[in-house]
Structures are given as structure tokens and as C-alpha cells.
What we know:
By secondary structure, the chain is α+β, with helices and mostly antiparallel strands. Helices cover 31% and strands 19% of the residues. The protein folds into two domains: 7-47, Arc Repressor Mutant, subunit A, CATH 1.10.10.10; 60-139, Alpha-Beta Plaits, CATH 3.30.70.
Amino acid sequence: xxxxxxxxxxxxxxxxxxxxxxxxxxxxxxxxxxxxxxxxxxxxxxxxxxxxxxxxxxxxxxxxxxxxxxxxxxxxxxxxxxxxxxxxxxxxxxxxxxxxxxxxxxxxxxxxxxxxxxxxxxxxxxxxxxxxxxxxxxxxxxxxxxxxxxxxxxxxx
Length: 157
């Protein structure tokens, strides 16, 4: 099902991505709408699954999560298996799980305190998933850009 967004919806999304704490009253003022109409539009965007959630972005280093790694995983249970992906997703240190094309089956993003914690994660969590055949880990030395914001078009097509 294709969701059609108009120019006002797109402007709302751009503003909310910049500041998820923006009030409906402030959104309404910026877009020259009644606050009640703005509240209705935001609720519809939530109901349609356009707005998925509201979160705070925490600096990983401030909570001891200084090591970022990407792990390529080969499995023996086939592409899109209902076993491996969900098992990986349940691990708290795993931030993202992606089914990928190519030689590997999954690409996961993990954050840990240090390399010892990463090794422990591999030994104690990943090794418990019987469908994992092999892993290839890339440790990030420096992050130049990392964000969740999407490029929202200026107008709907």
C-alpha cells in the first residue's frame, strides 16, 4: 500500500526530524494552521506508520559505548530465515540487523564498551545462535557521519 504525503505532511516530517520535541502548537504556527488540525495530521501520520516513534539520541561515549563494529554474518539457514534475524535482534548490543545481498546473509551494527566486550558478545551471544556459520567483523576507528534523519523531498510526487 502506497502512502501519499502532501506538501504539508512533508514539511511536518522535516520539522519533526529536526526537533521531535516540537509542540503541535509550534508546528501549527510555523505552517499557519489551527493546532487542532495539526494534531489530527500528526496523529494520521502516526496511524499510517509514517512516524514510527519518538526517541532521544544519546551520545554512545557518555554511556560507555565507545566501540562500534559492523559484523557480516553467514548463516546455514538461508536468506530471510525466521531464526537468525530475530535472534540477532534480541541482543541488546545489536543496534541494527539487515538481510543483505552478496556472499553474506546479514550485516549487523553493534556497540560495546571495548574490544573485550565485543569478544564476549561474539562468544556468549552470537555463538549461541546455531544457524550462524561464520562472521567477519569490521571495527570503526572514527565516525565521520552517523544519523537517522531521512532526506525528505520538498514536495510529494
